[in-house]
Amino acid sequence: MKKRIAAILLLGCMVMGSIGTQAQVSAAEVAETVTETETETEQTSEETPVDTAAAESTETAENTETAENTETAESTESAEPVKAAAADTTENGTEATAEEITHPTGLMDLNVINVGTIAEDDVLDETEANSSKSSSVYAAAWDAYSSNYVYNMLSTEERKFWDGLDASCRQVLLGTDNLTDGHIPYVSCGSLNSNRITYVAYMFRYMNPQYYFINVSLYQGGNSSGWYAAFGVYSAFQNGTARSTATQSVKNQVDTWKNTVNSLSSEAEKVKMIHDLIVQKVDYNTDIYGNSFNEDTAYTQSVYSVFCMDKTVCAGYAQAFEMMCNGVGVDCIAVTSDDHEWNKVRINDSWYNVDCTWADQSTIDYEYFERSDAVYDADLASYASSHAEESYWNEYLPACTLDSGATFSDPGTLPTITQQTAQPQISVTANNNVNYVTITSSTPNAIIYYTTNGDTPTPAYTRSEKYSSTFILSGSCTVKAVAVCDTYWDSNVASKSVTATTGTTGTTDTSDTTDTTTQHKAAPFVKLLYQYVLDRSATQSEVDYWVGRLENGSTGAEVAYGFLFSEEFQNKNYSDADYVEHLYLSLMGRASDADGKADWVTHLTNGVSRLYVFRQFTDSTEFGNLCNTYEIERGTVTLTEDRDQNYNVTRFVARNYTEFLGRTYDVDGLNDWSGRINSGYGMENVAYGFVFSQECINMNLSNSDYVKMLYRGIFGRSYDDEGLNDWVNQLDNGTSRETVFWGFANSQEFANMVASYGL
User: Fold this and answer.
1) Which of 126, 319, 659, 691 counts the highest number of beta carbons within 10 A?
2) How far apart are CA 514 and CA 330, in angstroms?
3) Do residues 109 and 217 both lie within one domain?
4) CB distance 228 to 188 below 8 Å
């Protein structure tokens, strides 16, 4: 007879009540349902799982003991005791009201419940589980929301348990059956000990936010076949119809956001929008810091609280962020400390920390947006313990070395990546039709991921194997490998066909290692231009095109020109300041310095073209060094406009428009006058042309205003009263304006003003 067992941990406390098979529940009722749960203690553990390991026999005894005391909701098997409620304190341990909490936590610990003997018919049928994986409905709607980062580093036994949990959760997600036992179907834990069962379950829950219906309870037990485990399900979602309604509600919100986010091109833009959408939509659920412990409060550990209730805590913020990022193709994982949850997200092949919870202030706080581990370890010198990862993460978490430099009001700027991880080398040593495969990368500290099923390996987006040592292949397949390293672009993908007869016995074959992308070292240069010029990631065909151009003789300057003067870039309508910033990032590999940026903006204000400034950057030593890094020729571009031939001439002409006509220049006029000066036209003649142009004459200036204009335009200063009166008197007494003009233009003061322009 199947046991009916359900439990919800509310910060280490069991709430006792009653639960039965629920009647039909509406969508509105799902959000409002608050059902107390109970743990039935009628089971015994007279029958223990068969296990030959002495250590696990000890664990069986511990299970029996704990099963007899389920009311405590504590697991003696766990390496760490169930955490005590700490929701009504701040991180420094002092009591706080909701209003005083500026950096809240709210993570509920997983509650391990030992249930003794499990009936055989309560264990998930493997064939049925596998069929759910192939469901097109599931694949189309939900498969992309999980992260595979942790999975790619699990052992074979851990993967089997993980896959079982995944299959069981999928079955519940897609099905409409009522869960009268209060949990998903049990799955086999293989030969894992109790600690590994718990830790793998922890990480599964954090890596699969799409399973919104599982609560924070983990049931463990066994029978003659071994050990089994299952997640508890929130009481409202145990009803099949209610769960189906809730599933659609979650998907509707996710799809709406995905459509918005996918309108953006770059990973960085998508990450920021997801971060802001979540923070703007929800409020922190301060009920968790009081005594209102019920299932409604417990939903805060699920994305359901974000997408359907608009109130959540750290677990909801982090898992919603993870679900959305992975859903739009940006690798993301959720990470926990003892009482807090946040994210690590992979942008431009490097990982960064993001904390949506602490961003949720009256205005969005970006202090914790795209920050390094070093910043989080110090926690901006404030709440260090809240970002101290729990110990079981030690062998899994990626390094976050780079930092955006974000502040409260500024999300910062992602650092420029200039190097690419060396492509892996795949070698095969054959012996008696068995192939020993070794994969290496020359980049220090690089991590290699590989596949043998034809899929492209990645750190997180697809399921791969993390390479650790030489492995054996007895059949025929294609091995693909990618090397990744913090602060580097991912390597090109290496691919090698392996057959049962590869090579001669006792020899090593390193030939025919090819990659699915170009091997040219300039690929990171092209990615850099896409990232910092077009603000988006490049497709592989786009990278291949530009690398092909470089291989066929195009220079770095020519390729950069193709980006910065493309229609795609021009349509962004960036300001001069933004344009200059893009030049620094893409052509110098760094953010601007304030003085340098201001100087180049001034150049543009004074009339030279953007191509002129582009040329100065591509002719710089910094750009030359960047090109040397990628083993490409720097090159240059040709300036054809008259205004770009001499900056001092151009800015002199531009000032004439301002001082004599009271307006900014027009490009045609600027080119015309600059061309005349470059051909030997005198500066006084240029000034004359402006003063006696029809545009200036039409201004109908009084004698006094005319003289004041000459002081500004010819002398470059304000008038003095004595001089002004003298010149005005001459005009009033019949002296022509032309005569007065030449009196100014032939003066030493005019000559000095012209010389100040370097002319």
Assistant:
1) 319
2) 27
3) yes
4) yes
